[in-house]
Amino acid sequence: MNVYKMDHHHLGSSNKNISHYAQTLTYLLGELKHVFDQRVDDPDSTKVSAFERLGEISKIMRLILEKYPLLKSKELLLDASNLVHAVKTYDYQNYSLERHSKLMDSINALYRSFQFK
């Protein structure tokens, strides 16, 4: 179940704030994708940028889950954990289409967890 499948009336007047946070998270996930799609010549620079984006994503997710604990789900936490693992274990020195695809899948899974349905 996606976190936003719940009825909006359960969240009261906070919908506007949730929408803002979800948009921010979506933007940051897009920025993380962009880091990996650039494939620059300096893998260390890519790693630093990826970890910076991951830190920003973690901050906004913590904020969302602290403000709206009803959104916490096993799926969301698993998707977030998988993304952290994928970014931290990514082989920045050796590009592989398979590893790149798995990383993109992790980003997309977390993105889908925050979609309004």
Automatic annotation (TrEMBL):
Residues covered by the Rho GTPase-activating protein 29/45 N-terminal domain: 23-114
Superkingdom of this protein's organism: Eukaryota
Protein name: Rho GTPase-activating protein 29/45 N-terminal domain-containing protein
